[in-house]
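Supplementary Data S3. Sequence and C-alpha cells for construct A.
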Amino acid sequence: MIEEIIQREWDFFQKVQHIDGRASCQDDFETFYKQRKAQYLVYPEELLLSYLEDLKLYKASQRNPIMEKYAYMMETTDKDFFQSIQSQLPVIDNEKKQIIQVICQIETTMREEFQQHYPTLSSLSRNIYTNDDEKEKTSFETYLRGELMTYSSHSLYLYGQMIIHMWNQHQNIVELINQNTVKEYGYQNLEEAENALRMK
C-alpha cells in the first residue's frame, strides 16, 4: 500500500509546473521515495487506506494534490503569487483550518524537541516556523500545513487521532520519521547518524 501511495504521489509530482521551470527534485525519485516511505511507515493502516482513497479521488477528479500542497504553502512564502492563484484552489473551511493549526502546534513542539536532541541532523532540515518562511525556504510548519490541507476530512481526522495518541504516549512523530529516514541511508539509528554527521 505504501508503494502504491508513493507511486501515485510521484506521478502527481511529475505534473507539477514550477514557476521557474522543472525542479531538479522532480528527477530524483530515490530521494523522494526514501523521504515519503520514512513518513508513511509511521502511519497506521487505517490512515494509509484513507489517504490512498484521497489520491484515487484526486486522480478521478483530475486534481493534483501535490500542486495544491505547494500552492497553499505560497500563502506565506510568495504572497503575491499566491493571491494570483488563490481563486483556483479549493477553499479550506475554518473548522478544518483550526484542526490543522492544532496539529501544527503539537508537531512544531515535537520538532523543537528533535532539534534539542539531534542538533546536527536538525540543521540539515527545514526551519521550524512559518514566521521563518522565505521565497525559496519553506518551513516545517508551513510544509505540514500545506500537506494537511490536501487531506480529506476523514484522513485529517485520522491523522489528528494519530498525533494526539503519540502525544499522550510521549512519542515524537518527527523523531520516528527521521529514525526511518536515517535507516534508509544506512545508519542503525539517529544517534549513529548524528555522531557521523557531527564528525564531518
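Construct B, processed identically:
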Amino acid sequence: MWDRNQMAARAAQELEDGMYVNLGIGIPTLVANYVGDKDITLQSENGMLGMGPFPFEGDEDPDLINAGKQTITEMDRTAYFDSATSFAMIRGGKIAAAILGAMEVSETGDLANWMIPGKLIKGMGGAMDLVAGVGRVIVVMDHANKHGESKVLKACTLPLTGKGVVDRIITNLGVLDVVEGGLRIVECAEGVTEEELRAATQATLV
C-alpha cells in the first residue's frame, strides 16, 4: 500500500498547469513537494498565494507558515494578503481545486473533516468555505482509522463539513471516484488487490 508521501505524490498527479490549488492540513500539505515542473499556484487561506515546498532543515523562516502552522518556502511570484482577501478568492470560485484530509467520506461525497464531538478543536478553519467554493474537491486520507475501521462509509457518522462535495478519494489503498450509485475504483495502490480494497471499504462500490 502507499505511505503518506506516495499518497501526496498521487494527489499531485491530479493537478494541471495553470491551476490555483488549496492544500489542507495533514497529508495534503505534502503535495507541495511533488508538484515538480508543473505551473501550479498553491494557495493558503492564511493569506499566501504561491507556496513552495517545505524548507530544508536549517532554512526555515518562522514568518513563512501555511494554514497548519508549518514552515514553508516562497516563490518568485508569491503574493501575501489578509485572510479576507484569501477567502474572497475561495468563495468567489477562483480556486480550481482543494486537496483536503478527512476523518470520514461517504459514498455520496459527504465530507466530515473538522471535528469529533467531545474532543477539543481549534476551530472550523477554511474547510466549509473550500468545499463550497472550489471547482474540485480531492480527499487524501488513510483508508481506515486507528482501530482498523473503514473511513470510506455508506454515511458519515461525524458532523459534516459539506454534503455531496467530494469528487475523488485517494487513500493508502487506492483511488476512488464519487459517481452515481456509490464509488468507482479508479486505481489500486501498489501491492493492493481490488478484492482487498473492496473488503476494506464500507461504502457501496459500483
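Residues 4-12 form the longest helix (9 residues). Helices lie at 4-12, 83-91, 127-133, 194-199.
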